Automatic annotation (TrEMBL):
<dbReference type="GO" id="GO:0042542">
    <property type="term" value="P:response to hydrogen peroxide"/>
</dbReference>
<dbReference type="InterPro" id="IPR016100">
    <property type="entry name" value="Prismane_a-bundle"/>
</dbReference>
<feature type="binding site">
    <location>
        <position position="15"/>
    </location>
    <ligand>
        <name>[4Fe-4S] cluster</name>
    </ligand>
</feature>
<dbReference type="InterPro" id="IPR004137">
    <property type="entry name" value="HCP/CODH"/>
</dbReference>
<feature type="binding site">
    <location>
        <position position="487"/>
    </location>
    <ligand>
        <name>hybrid [4Fe-2O-2S] cluster</name>
    </ligand>
</feature>
<comment type="function">
    <text>Catalyzes the reduction of hydroxylamine to form NH(3) and H(2)O.</text>
</comment>
<feature type="binding site">
    <location>
        <position position="311"/>
    </location>
    <ligand>
        <name>hybrid [4Fe-2O-2S] cluster</name>
    </ligand>
</feature>
<feature type="binding site" description="via persulfide group">
    <location>
        <position position="398"/>
    </location>
    <ligand>
        <name>hybrid [4Fe-2O-2S] cluster</name>
    </ligand>
</feature>
<feature type="binding site">
    <location>
        <position position="485"/>
    </location>
    <ligand>
        <name>hybrid [4Fe-2O-2S] cluster</name>
    </ligand>
</feature>
<keyword id="KW-0411">Iron-sulfur</keyword>
<protein>
    <recommendedName>
        <fullName>Hydroxylamine reductase</fullName>
        <ecNumber>1.7.99.1</ecNumber>
    </recommendedName>
</protein>
<dbReference type="InterPro" id="IPR011254">
    <property type="entry name" value="Prismane-like_sf"/>
</dbReference>
<dbReference type="GO" id="GO:0046872">
    <property type="term" value="F:metal ion binding"/>
</dbReference>
<keyword id="KW-0560">Oxidoreductase</keyword>
<feature type="binding site">
    <location>
        <position position="451"/>
    </location>
    <ligand>
        <name>hybrid [4Fe-2O-2S] cluster</name>
    </ligand>
</feature>
<dbReference type="GO" id="GO:0005737">
    <property type="term" value="C:cytoplasm"/>
</dbReference>
<feature type="binding site">
    <location>
        <position position="6"/>
    </location>
    <ligand>
        <name>[4Fe-4S] cluster</name>
    </ligand>
</feature>
Length: 542
């Protein structure tokens, strides 16, 4: 196997024996084959676009297939066998439609024509031939850019899938996914074209994130500042992890009146701020921290656990029977709830002891998404003008296991008292429970939401820039980002598309970016690796 799509890749180079994430070589090969098969769909869909053919079922499938290959989503080989089979069926059905509409259905040998083997072993063997390094003759910089586009598309597909679940879709998003994937097969394209396509991925992702924002806020209302208990309430308990708001709502509905308290885990924390979710009396609090601490935290949770999206890790035996997956998440041997009837998890929660007494704990504030922040925009602008607020830091992104991620904790601790920290995604667990106080009533630590809410952060930055009649790069705002998986890659591409400069990125730079590609990013965007908290603060604040 060879995989280097995430930040924790082995030795900062690539996972070759088994994934640091726990991905087995068979699953890696099956994921590679599924991406190959989806590129085949993309080639056909690009022809379809020319003759006005687009199939909603294919669009949904393509996003689900791509999202399944994102880091820490699905580790179950059986599910990939099914997905590969379905991919080829969708491809052939789409070919027929394209042909019927007068389009071309003649494709060169490759993803658009391949026939899947009849069993898992055969598919694994096929997958091993189509991996990232399959063709050693490809120029490393071109390979780097192609992979950058594929990983960007993985993040984009994830956001598009989340948006579609809440009824929000746009043809332009699917069209780009197909254009970008098909382009990675095109030997006539050079570095400039690929850089353009990578930035276009970022541009299209802004649309996908806008759709997701519309889905979230349209369905559940605009988040409002909300205090969330980190302790627990005596009683039976279900913990909901991942990013899917609809799954959480479904679980809240299905547990109503059953004497079960529902807790959020990881990226579900910001859900407490949504009016249509917080209205449930048994939606109690938040348990645990970021994804990489789940083995320890889940082992100590006295109820059932539901994983709605990434990030799942190998469950320990002690809680293997308590954890359930739904949606695209999978782990071999873990009960999967495909039909959104969460009865198995509810029954498990009822059978487990739950919290036998109230557990006291701190509270944290959530709900500072764009609507809430813009609601206090006049005070914020005034505070900047009268120099009560000197600078804003967006310290956001993914968390992970590397010791170097202490940087983000230290950074926030050292941010001077006349500065405000905006945060989003699971990287916040490095500092989310710190009491940073306020500046004239404006909290110094503002939780914008999930990584899925990056659109909200961008809107806040744009609104500030408009208020000060300057560009985002001229604002007293610095972005200190942490990345782990491919949703972070596409958000970065969106920021680059917007022309945002001087981003600090850590804890390490992507292994799939070659020195030449990095050079292009540095020259155009002055993107830089994080240094020391003290040194970076000094450099930014002067
Ligand atoms: Fe974290 Fe995992 Fe939200 Fe990522 S839970 S690391 S960017 O998958 O999705 O922030
Ligand atoms: Fe390695 Fe990350 Fe790929 Fe997992 S997703 S195999 S940790 S590079």
């Amino acid at each position: 196997m060879f995989c280097f799509q995430c930040e924790q890749t082995a030795k900062g180079e690539g996972c070759t024996k088994i994934g640091v994430c726990g991905k087995q070589p068979e699953v890696a090969a099956l994921q590679d084959l599924l991406i190959h098969a989806t590129k085949g769909i993309a080639q056909v869909a690009v022809e379809g676009t020319k003759v006005g053919v687009s199939d909603p079922a294919v669009n949904q499938f393509a996003c689900e297939a791509i999202f399944s290959t994102l880091t820490n989503v699905d580790f179950d080989p059986a599910r990939f066998v099914t997905l590969i089979d379905e991919a080829v069926k969708h491809r052939e059905a789409l070919k027929a439609k394209v042909q019927a509409a007068g389009g071309s259905a003649a494709f060169a040998d490759g993803p658009a024509t391949f026939t899947p083997a009849g069993d898992q072993a055969g598919l694994v063997a096929q997958g091993e031939k189509v991996g990232i390094q399959a063709d050693p003759s490809v120029n490393p910089d071109i390979r780097s850019l192609r992979e950058l586009i594929v990983y960007g598309i993985k993040g984009l597909a994830a956001y598009a899938d989340h948006a579609r679940i809440l009824g929000q879709e746009d043809e332009s998003v699917y069209a780009y996914i197909y254009e970008g994937l098909a382009a990675t097969l095109d030997d006539t394209l050079g570095a400039d074209e690929y850089v353009g396509l990578a930035l276009k991925c970022g541009e299209v992702n802004l649309k996908a994130m806008e759709l997701l924002d519309a889905g979230n806020t349209g369905t559940y209302g605009h988040p409002v500042p909300t205090a969330v208990p980190l302790g627990a309430k005596k009683g039976k308990a279900i913990l909901v992890s991942g990013h899917d708001l609809k799954d959480l709502e479904t679980i809240l509905k299905q547990t109503e009146g059953k004497g079960i308290n529902v807790y959020t885990h990881g990226e579900m924390l910001p859900c407490h701020g949504y009016p249509e979710l917080k209205k449930y009396g048994h939606f109690y609090g938040h348990y645990g921290t970021a994804w990489q601490n789940q083995a320890k935290e889940f082992a100590a949770f006295p109820g059932a656990i539901v994983m709605t999206t990434n990030c799942i890790q190998k469950p320990r035996e002690t809680y293997q029977d308590n954890i359930f997956t739904t949606g695209l998440v999978g782990w071999p041997g873990v009960t999967h709830i495909a039909d959104k009837d969460f009865t198995p998890a509810i029954e498990r929660a009822m059978a487990l002891p739950g919290f036998t007494k109230d557990v006291p704990g701190k509270q944290v504030m959530v709900g500072f998404a764009r609507n809430a922040v813009m609601g206090v925009a006049p005070q914020v602008i005034e505070a900047v003008k009268n120099k009560a607020i000197r600078h804003f830091f967006l310290v956001g992104g993914c968390d992970g296991a590397k010791p170097g991620r202490d940087y983000y904790t230290e950074f926030v601790e050292k941010v001077p008292e006349d500065c405000v920290v905006l945060t989003l995604a699971c990287g916040k667990f490095r500092f989310f429970d710190k009491d940073l106080g306020d500046i004239g009533g404006i909290p110094r630590l503002l939780d914008i939401g999930q990584c899925n809410d990056a659109h909200s952060a961008i809107q806040i930055a744009v609104a500030l820039a408009n208020a000060f009649e300057c560009g985002v790069n001229d604002l007293p705002l610095s972005m200190i980002l942490s990345w782990y998986e491919q949703k972070a890659c596409v958000i970065l591409l969106s920021l680059l598309h917007l022309g945002i400069k001087d981003i600090r990125l850590g804890p390490s730079l992507p292994a799939f970016i070659t020195p030449n590609v990095l050079d292009v990013l540095v020259k155009n965007f002055n993107i830089m690796p994080i240094g020391t908290a003290e040194g970076d603060l000094k450099a930014i604040l002067g």
